[in-house]
Amino acid sequence: MEAAIRREMILNVEIVDLLNKQIMLEQKASSKYLAMASWCDQRELRNSAKYFYDQAEEERSHMMKIFKFVNDNGGSAYSPAVQEVSHEFESLRGIFETSLDAEIEVTNAIHHIFKKARQVGDFTSEIFLQWFVTEQAEEEEKVRDILDLIDLMGDMPLKMVDERIPTE
């Protein structure tokens, strides 16, 4: 049955496999952001907590967007297992650095799938992934701007830094 489904789908089989890995990566990013939100919440860093809660939801929506895309185009999307993530962070700056690392990991994975889709002629996936390419550039820029803000504020109390973290 799986072979019959794969024969009739629009998408390239190799791309579907990569998209399923991306579904797992997006879920992992969402879980990481929840852990970061919790750390901030525990320290009453309200804007940072909101930022990370929103990021967790955004990553989940990305996961669902890919999940639906695979299924809507004849593939079989797999529900990702929830991976354990660290809830230990040393500083607010450290959390945002970890966030940037996670965004870069997602960006690299999206670029890899995009290049592979182009290489194998899976134009449907390539067009779909263009939105993610743009989105990831924006996400990385947002985190880099926050890290610049933290650096500019230097030794200011965390509450004052947190008040300037964008929540929209």
Mind sketching the topology for me?
Elements: H1 2-8, H2 13-42, H3 46-72, H4 92-120, H5 123-153, H6 158-162
Account of the protein in words:
This protein is 77% helix and 0% strand. It is built from 6 helices and no strands. Helix 2 packs antiparallel against helix 4. It starts with a helix and ends in a 6-residue tail after the last helix.
Quick recap of the structure?
By secondary structure, this protein is mainly α. The chain is 77% helix and 0% strand. Helix 2 packs antiparallel against helix 3, helix 2 packs antiparallel against helix 4 and helix 4 runs antiparallel to helix 5.
Mean pLDDT: 92
Which parts are unreliable, with pLDDT below 50 for 5 consecutive residues or more? none
**Portion in beta strands:** under 5%
Total E-strand runs: 0
Biggest sheet features: none
Estimate percent helicity: over 70%
Quickly give the structural class.
mainly alpha
Helix and strand pattern: HHHHHH
Helix run count: 6
Shape: elongated
Distance between the termini: 45 Å
Radius of gyration: 18 Å
